[in-house]
Amino acid sequence: xxxxxxxxxxxxxxxxxxxxxxxxxxxxxxxxxxxxxxxxxxxxxxxxxxxxxxxxxxxxxxxxxxxxxxxxxxxxxxxxxxxxxxxxxxxxxxxxxxxxxxxxxxxxxxxxxxxxxxxxxxxxxxxxxxxxxxxxxxxxxxxxxxxxxxxxxxxxxxxxxxxxxxxxxxxxxxxxxxxxxxxxxxxxxxxxxxxxxxxxxxxxxxxxxxxxxxxxxxxxxxxxxxxxxxxxxxxxxxxxxxxxxxxxxxxxxxxxxxxxxxxxxxxxxxxxxxxxxxxxxxxxxxxxxxxxxxxxxxxxxxxxxxxxxxxxxxxxxxxxxxxxxxxxxxxxxxxxxxxxxxxxxxxxxxxxxxxxxxxxxxxxxxxxxxxxxxxxxxxxxxxxxxxxxxxxxxxxxxxxxxxxxxxxxxxxxxxxxxxxxxxxxxxxxxxxxxxxxxxxxxxxxxxxxxxxxxxxxxxxxxxxxxxxxxxxxxxxxxxxxxxxxxxxxxxxxxxxxxxxxxxxxxxxxxxxxxxxxxxxxxxxxxxxxxxxx
Length: 533
Prior knowledge:
Layout lengths: L8 E12 L7 E9 L3 E6 L5 H8 L2 H4 L3 E9 L2 E2 L5 H7 E4 L12 H11 L4 H15 L14 H14 L4 E5 L7 H16 L3 E5 L12 E6 L2 E7 H6 L2 H6 L7 H12 L21 E9 L6 E10 L4 E5 L6 H8 L7 E6 L2 E2 L5 H4 E4 L12 H16 L5 H17 L15 H15 L3 E5 L7 H16 L3 E5 L3 H7 L2 E6 L2 E7 L2 H11 L1 H7 L1
Parallel strand pairs: 3-8, 3-9, 6-7, 7-8, 13-18, 13-19, 16-17, 17-18
Antiparallel strand pairs: 1-2, 1-4, 4-5, 9-10, 11-12, 11-14, 14-15, 19-20
């Protein structure tokens, strides 16, 4: 990688090490990184490697907001961030966080996109122009007169990106911006980044899902244990062997490579040879069936689901796909008893189940796992879930049971690479680590039905594969699993069948064989990406 002179830098990080308060290991260890103006650099690496902390250096959250010890210097547009005021940083650096909820301050979309402009005192007509321009760039014009509460996770993510875009910063920092986006939204974001580059803006992206950045990212920086362990131009990165990138835990760089992930992930199922994925789906206690489900937001609101019917057999993994706002999350929330249907029914094992009884039978892993982590330690979170599952199954205790419980906790910690974090508070984890913990806790509950909403947001290749294998193992043991995902790599690795949802209606269902995978690609909109290439 050719050296970048300091005078050409929009971002100049020089020898920075940072320890969060109370942590003995540094989150960043002597990191240096220079980014030229008008360039896009993607930072990738395993969950917890320091990517998010690196982005927090650039937007000033480290060390001004997150407490800890820091050495080294950070300059943005030639200014030492230790010497500038927060208002200058807010004007110069736009930020999109992993969790869009953490950035909302208004009830409606227009006010949210305009909020940063209002804070800067931008003249009204210019502010109106910027809101319209940002909505057009992200193709979210139909959302402008909606409330935030009505939006899906992916739609909220798009609104947050539009809000940062409207401020017109010289540097834009995106932390896992595609976590909840569908493929068309990802492609629109890629084109927006290209436009920002042409305008001389600088974009720093922390990301696991890489394929949408091919041809957009000028550099790929790989981090490992708080250090920069690799730095390539886009062409150099593309020239690396697929096996080399996969061995480092980096995900697909192109649509064609995503198809190779299925064999890469499923090849590891030899770890449980007695639980092969070609089992015949059972028909019994774990089956879940939905008939005519209709959900409406508010008394006179729009229908998020309309007469939706589907089923998932015990031993089957079903992928639920559709564009942002199709009703996928609403459906999962109904199944888990968190959303009341206007009409229709849900049955488990052939028996209708009312709203209040569903949480005992259906476990939901949310898009934002921080909302369902309650213990004061990682190990405690899994232990609580195991005990909850055992109370449901009416198991008895005793010394032998205590030993078995401890062994199961350690087994799940190991399966999700959480062993070194057993005593940490769940909310001190990175976004990807929280995601893994929430899924491990779901596995521990052993409910007949498991439903997961975008379970691979914030996950690197190794942990995406671990989640796929765990979901398939649960299915092999008779669980019904329904997964909402925009992640084609995960979908083909984990699922047996696909159900398409659009505008609250079930369109069709089909097996995820070779023909089905080709149909999913068309449905996701990968053709538009090929046209762009």
